[in-house]
Amino acid sequence: MTAITSTPASGSAGLAAFAAELRPEQVPEPVWRRAEELLLDWFGAALAGKGARPVKSIAAWAEAMGPAGGAAELLISRRRSSPLFAAMVNAAASHVAEQDDVHNGAVFHPGTVVFPAALAAAQALRRSGAELLLAAIAGYEAGIRAGESLGRSHYRVFHTTGTVGGIAAAVAVGRLLRLNPEQMNHAIGSAGTQAAGLWEFLRTAADSKPLHAAHAAASGLSAAYLARDGFRGATQILEGPQGMAAGMSSDADAGRLCDRLGERWALLETSFKYHASCRHTHPAADALLQLMREHGLGADDIVRVNARVHVAALEVLGVVGRPQSVHQAKFSMGTVLGLIACHGAAGITEFERALDDDAVGDFAAKVTMEADAEVEAAYPQRWIGKVEVNTRDGRRLTCKVEQPKGDPGNTLSRAELEAKALRLAAFGGAAGPEETRLALANLWKIRGAAVVGSLLPGART
After folding, report:
1. Three-state DSSP state, 369
2. What is the distance between the alpha carbons of residues 161 and 157, in angstroms, rounded to a whole number?
3. Within 10 Å of residue 71's Cβ, how many Cβ atoms?
4. Pick from 399, 390, 320: which is nearest to 354 by CA?
5. Number of separate helices (H) and strands (E) present in the chain
6. Which of 21, 134, 201, 361 is the most buried (most CB within 10 A)?
7. Residue 47 near residue 77, CB atoms below 8 Å
8. How far apart are CA 340 and CA 48, in angstroms?
């Protein structure tokens, strides 16, 4: 591995220079391996989205807009389209099941925007598997740092995956287009000026969340292609006086944008999602599951659960009262803990039955949330889980989980990632068990592929 010298530029230009000039030999082997795992994990999440109504709407719209064929693969239908529409559909599909990866510090889902855009461009440009992975690595590093730089205030109103997701996608596609640093910065500028995504959708069970990912992947891809052809974007879109930080944050820190680029690999800090719900629910879910197992409790043994959480969890989850849709249920702490208590899991199949499950609804009524000073102090770098449980026989029990399942220190093995992908594919019906296993085997070897082809057999025009 060759050491990376410090990038002389700072801010948006520094991110652009790092991404454009990153060489394969500068990337440590663990980063390459984690990129493979993140790609496989994203693939499973995308297959799970096939039957979701919002994804069907976006896919039908993309098909109506055309073209009837193209170089890029739509995973849920095995049709082909332009890179733009493939990126949109695959991004929406991979975000709707709430099983895509997340970076805790940035509170950002990088895989759902980086891989759809990068895969579409790689297939259209006939790039190698190694180039696809290197592009994704660059996209993760840029997008995560952009999210971190915007601070916690940004996330109170803006869905970070929708806002900085376009920048991450632009960088990944820019790598595949082989943009130079100046062009890459123009791509970042054009992506940033299109940044969008507001949390208001949660209040009324709107379909906006997968649309955020779809728009970010597509706008980032567009920004990169435009930059290749000379289109100029703002050169300080993140840190400028009228840029994203100025308009979308009150605690931004531009110093985070280029902090230890090439030394600290933020991609390695990305977490896999074990439960099929908003990540803010996972720490408490793990804590409740551990407590119930340790004390041999059933759902009927519990009369009250108090989840002690960070403030951002209250801001995101607190707007959901009684869930009106399956997707909104994934943002309900009561529903998630109800599934854990009643069924021992909050997976994708459990959520499909949650709204009609009286036992889950009854348990949800026992759940409260409260801000906790220790949990808040650790957030967002660490997402600690704490629960307090009152039992029917008068006991008060507590449990604390330092690292939820899926975090880097408590990660999923490759075997667990394969099992998760197989479950998600079966749920969505996008691929059968044998073809999914074949696709997974090929994904583990994609770094050696001379050209990135279809991930699933039988793609048709």
Report:
1. strand
2. 12
3. 16
4. 320
5. 21, 8
6. 134
7. no
8. 21
